[in-house]
Design brief:
The chain is an alpha+beta fold. The chain has three domains: 161 residues, MoaB/Mog-like domain (Molybdenum Cofactor Biosythetic Enzyme, Chain A), CATH 3.40.980; 92 residues, Beta Complex (Molybdopterin biosynthesis moeA protein, domain 3); 76 residues, Beta Barrel (Beta-clip), CATH 2.40.340. The protein is built from seven helices and 29 strands. Strands 4, 5, 6, 7, 8, 9 and 10 form a seven-stranded mixed β-sheet that branches. Strands 17-14-18-22-21-19 form a six-stranded mixed β-sheet, sandwiched between helices. A hairpin with a 6-residue loop joins strand 5 and strand 6. Helix 1 packs parallel to helix 6 and helix 3 packs parallel to helix 6. The longest helix is centred in the last third of the chain and has 20 residues. It is elongated and about 95 Å long. It starts with 17 loop residues before the first helix and ends in a 5-residue tail after the last strand. Bound molecules: ligand LQZAQKY5 and molybdate ion. The site of ligand LQZAQKY5 has 25 residues, from helix 6. This is Molybdopterin molybdenumtransferase. Pathway: Cofactor biosynthesis; molybdopterin biosynthesis. Keywords: Magnesium, Metal-binding, Molybdenum, Molybdenum cofactor biosynthesis, Transferase. Its EC number is 2.10.1.1.
């Protein structure tokens, strides 16, 4: 794997903004090169390694979008109903069956009974839906006026034409992408190998669920939160458990993890106290590339390079883990995996709350989104604020993003909402 140098990022005294950190990650982070072929069904969530070029037109032939009657538009009377003889039958997957021998030379002046997906008979350009037509018993059909030329016909190549780029390299493949690839005839795709990510929690007070809880200990929420978040990113996760607040132990564990993985993530131990050993371990074992960003929650997040492998020390508070993961670790994973990364869409909503904040940092407020009596979407802040409050994540819909320059929000102000589904 390509390795990062110790001086990959330049740090200065001012707190870096989230945008600066992400831009630096994308500018400097080498992505994994290895590509593996996988079956289409295994490709969901994986990162496409090369552009996928359409080897054929889609659809491959002009065909009917409805069950009904195909005609040549020029055979229709402009303003009144038209009665035509039926000359054939076109069913999907079958050759056109000519039912009227007299028309074997062509269908001029005839209609053809046609079904959805059947190829358009040559020379025909328009299809009536069967429920708009009247069958006349002697093999004729009455067609109403008013349809436009080309109605209910799907043109060859209207979805995608041969030679066009169907999916770009770097696409994290979604179910609909697999549908498109399959429709173009691909049964395997070249994807980047899964990123190998190691995680561990730190802290003398942290106990794995299932174990007895000593006084003043807490159960490890972060490893489980993180594993879920990581799985959704399509990476392979190694759970290294909980490490005590011991710099030597943490240093050794991080070094060993870096040798076997593409990325190491920890939680806890990155703030100011003398018990915060993770930051110290990164400085000793490798190089700190940033520590503390202009973001709340999540400010103490640390990033480093150990043995050429990126390392992110997420803060201990679970909400800080969630947010620093969404806005720092997730873009980093995209960069390392060679995946495209676009800032997730923000939706304007009305604020239902008043809020004050410091200039210069970006804040994320956990909110429920409701509809008011005028039909407008209103964001209501969750009642309990702290970054340790897990129910503030489980009982809300998403985050309101308050940019660096904002210092206060009043009820009724337009603010930007990000649904959790877009960031995990
Ligand atoms: N003097 C200062 N104190 C703190 C600052 C600061 O700037 N100056 N920053 C605060 C902020 S903001 C955060 S966030 C936390 C980050 O602290 P650490 O990353 O050093 O994390 P810990 O001190 O180890 O733990 C913080 C908190 O989270 C709990 N925790 C830790 N790991 C887990 C886990 N796996 N599952 C559940 N809960 C966990 C831990 O028990 C603590 O309560 O620092 C503030 N302090
Ligand atoms: O930045 Mo801390 O993450 O608010 O609790």
């Amino acid at each position: 794997m390509a390795q990062l140098s110790k001086d990959s990022f330049a740090a200065d005294d001012r707190l870096m903004t989230v945008d600066e950190a992400v831009a630096a990650i994308f500018a400097r982070m080498p992505c994994i090169e290895d590509v593996e072929p996988v079956s289409l069904i295994e490709a969901e969530g994986r990162v496409l390694a090369q552009d996928l070029i359409a080897p054929r037109d889609l659809p491959g032939f002009d065909n009917s979008a409805v069950d009904g009657f195909a005609v040549c538009f020029d055979d229709l009377a402009p303003a009144v109903e038209t009665v035509l003889d039926l000359g054939g039958r076109a069913a999907a997957g079958h050759a056109l069956a000519i039912t009227d021998c007299r028309t074997a030379a062509g269908f001029a002046g005839k209609a053809v009974r046609i079904f959805t997906g059947a190829a358009m008979p040559e020379g025909m350009d328009t299809v009536f839906m069967q429920e708009d037509c009247r069958r006349i018993s002697d093999g004729r059909v009455s067609l109403p006026p008013g349809l436009s030329r080309g109605a209910n016909r799907r043109l060859r190549g209207e979805d995608i034409s041969v030679g066009e780029t169907a999916l770009r390299a770097g696409r994290r493949l979604r179910p609909e992408d697999l549908g498109l690839a399959a429709a173009l005839g691909f049964d395997r795709l070249g994807v980047r190998r899964r990123l190998k990510v190691a995680i561990f929690s730190t802290g003398d007070e942290i106990v794995s669920p299932g174990e007895p809880l000593k006084p003043s200990a807490v159960y490890d929420a972060n490893r489980f939160l993180l594993q879920g978040l990581l799985r959704r990113q399509g990476v392979s996760v190694t759970d290294l458990g909980v490490l005590a607040d011991d710099t030597a132990e943490i240093r050794a564990a991080i070094r060993a993890a870096a040798r076997e993985h593409d990325l190491v993530l920890t939680s806890g131990g990155v703030s100011m106290g003398e018990e915060d050993h993770v930051k110290a371990a990164i400085c000793d074992e490798g190089a700190l590339v940033f520590w503390r960003l202009a973001i709340k929650p999540g400010r103490p997040v640390a990033m480093g390079v150990i043995e050429g492998v990126p390392f992110v020390g997420l803060p201990g508070n679970p909400v800080a883990v969630f947010i620093a993961f969404a806005f720092i670790a997730r873009p980093l994973i995209a960069a390392l995996s060679g995946a495209e990364f676009e800032p997730e869409r923000r939706f304007p909503v009305k604020s239902g709350f008043a809020y004050k904040k410091k200039a210069g940092r970006r804040e994320y407020v956990r909110v429920v989104v409701l509809t008011d009596s005028t039909g407008a979407l209103v964001a209501e802040k969750y009642g309990v604020e702290g970054a340790a409050v897990l129910t503030s994540l489980t009982r809300t819909h998403g985050l309101v993003e308050l940019p660096e320059d904002v210092v206060k929000v009043a009820p009724g102000d337009v603010i930007n909402f990000i649904d959790y589904d877009l960031i995990r």
